[in-house]
Amino acid sequence: ISGYTLTVQASDNGSPPKLNTTTVNIDVSDVNDNPPVFSKGNYSVIIQENKPIGFSVLQLVVTDRDSSHNGPPFLFTILSGNEERTFQITQQGVLTTSAALNRKVRDHYLLHVKVADNGKPPLSSLTYIDIRVIEESIYSPAILPLEIFITAFGEEYSGGVIGKIHATDQDVYDTLTYSLDPKMESLFSVSSTGGKLIAHKRLDVGQYLLNVTVTDGKFTTAADITVHIRQITQDILNHSIAIRFANLSPEEFIGDYWRNFQRALRNILGVRRNDIQIVSLQPSDPPSNLDVLLNIEKSSSSHHPMRILLHKINSSVPDLEEILGVRIIDVFHKLCAGLDCPLKFCEEKVTVDENVMSTHSTARLSFVTPRHHRTAVCLC
């Protein structure tokens, strides 16, 4: 308890007694009885040689359970291991280089570091920092181009996470940093460390071309990211085709099967490959299965009624399963076949929920789609 407020009353022995009260405030001051503590007992760091002088190697995090006047500012001291004065620690706890590192001269440092608090008398703690110097980057990072397809029910997309950029580097200890062309930063952003791509505010239907770069601090590589925002209408939903796959996740379907499936359907239906579009992807019931809602563009299939397209797909299921190597549980356009009422008295409705958008991303493809619902009822 850091303080007490007491109300004290004094009364005399008269008749009637007279009395008065006063307030006594008591502040309990802090004694410096807690040393500052490093977030780790020991630290291990790997750093590439030839980093510029002043390069930040490590941020030391220190906590102190005493009150503020017995805590920071902290005083950091390197007790041993820094005889050549290769490193220094700022009073903010950042370990930096103060000389060039050359692994052929020395490739290992073990620094013994002390931190002291601001109390009287000061208390302190110790830690070790193990530093290994490795050769600088010799490989450029590799970054994959990414194509993103977003389904919007309406004339714009409300924004959110739309994919993840994939980059690799043969230098094992390289740290990769991502960045986006500044001209597009009002519409999109990329997380500098993870490569997660985010669409800001509302975006109109159409196509966007982004230039993303990744650097390891020495080499920089760029790649193009294409974002397609496609509009779906209730008419498209009413003429959509649903295909249920067994034991398949959305990411597996996108990464391993979608392009082959699109190509196979193109040959079966006699349409252009790009006329076959994904409207929605979602796990079915049970969740291990996958529901894919497709739209076949009318421009190419207007001379083929939907029932003919559906018949062609259903009759080709064995061929599709053989080509893809996965089992197709069902292909359906109408749910009414399962209801005990004449078709003319059955009404089916396909809807989407734009408040439940899912992003399914692989190294080269990403799909952002709303959740869909299919219902059918007998009218009489």
From TrEMBL:
Keywords: Calcium, Membrane, Repeat, Transmembrane, Transmembrane helix. GO terms for molecular function: calcium ion binding. The keyword Transmembrane applies. GO terms for cellular component: plasma membrane. Its main location: membrane. The keyword Repeat applies. One of its GO terms (biological process) is homophilic cell adhesion via plasma membrane adhesion molecules. It is found in: Membrane. Residues 4-38, 39-143, 159-245 form the Cadherin domain. This is FAT1 protein. The lineage of its organism: Eukaryota, Metazoa, Chordata, Craniata, Vertebrata.
